[in-house]
Amino acid sequence: MLEAIYSFNNEMKELFRTVPKHASYTSPTIQKEILNHISNRVKRMICDEIDGGKFCLLVDEAHDESNREQMSIVLRFVNKDGVIMERFLGLVHVRDNTSQTLKNRIYFLFTHKNLDFKSIRGQGYDGASNMRGHFKGLQALISKDCPSAYYVYCFAHQLQLALMAASQGVIALQKFFTQLSFVINVVGASSKCSDQLRDAQAEQMTYFKSIGELETGRCLNQIGTLQRAVDTRSGSYLKLVSTLIKMFSSICEVLLKIIKDGTGSIRGDADSAYETITTFGFIFVLHLEKEIMEITDLLCQALQKQSQDILNALRIVASTKLLLKKMKDER
């Protein structure tokens, strides 16, 4: 990073040339200070880009690796050239996820960045009660201060929850996802199992490469892992199902090793998991779900585009319904 800085700035290059030889400026404290300065500079550029204009506020919550509650803030606005822009303003730590706490932290950030909350012309959140509540939700609290800040429930979030609710209403699919979760728990039960899975994939790739049946290209043939899906991200289910199909033989190999060499109850769990994923019903639903999710995922991705409008979104929904109907009729 330091080399990149002084390669584009002669003044900084001269400064680094004259510093004491023992001063490397790469200690953790200095690194964090440099990153903080860069972050503040980027935020100032975003605020300058808004230039006192109107903007929409997009907020979501998440936990970081240390299990601290974080709030992500994104601003959506039209720049001077008439182009719709979405800028990630930053992550803000919050003590809790109550609507009042979220509002206070947002206003605190706006104050420090010289952004007027009266300029908010839209709010986009998920459907949690602390966000969309009509009386004490975040959207209600901000609407009291700025009546023009209309709230829109995220369309992509609604679609993903609707897809999960629809799938859970089908007994075969509900059973499939329960079995899928069980398989993930068994295969990822320990670091040893994860290592065995990676080794099995590496051996499989070596074999296919030796017989000339391995497709080559960028981002291909990467050794992956099975990760849990999230209900509010349908794309994560598509990724999980696709990964399971790709790693199917490797997973079966790992389960057979656990059955043979494992100890305790893990052997019984591995045997049940192996018996489950090798049944016709599980494999059929696995491939069927992949085809369905590939169609619905296109809709989810389209609804999250910056330049999307409601009329085009309705047309995309209609075309997605036709594709699903065509798939059903052909079966």
From TrEMBL:
DUF4371 domain mapped to chain residues: 13-137
Stated name of the protein: DUF4371 domain-containing protein
Species: Lactuca sativa
Superkingdom to which the source organism belongs: Eukaryota
Any single Pfam family the record assigns to this protein: DUF4371
PANTHER family: GENERAL TRANSCRIPTION FACTOR 2-RELATED ZINC FINGER PROTEIN (PTHR11697), TTF-TYPE DOMAIN-CONTAINING PROTEIN (PTHR11697:SF231)
SUPFAM superfamilies, sorted: Ribonuclease H-like
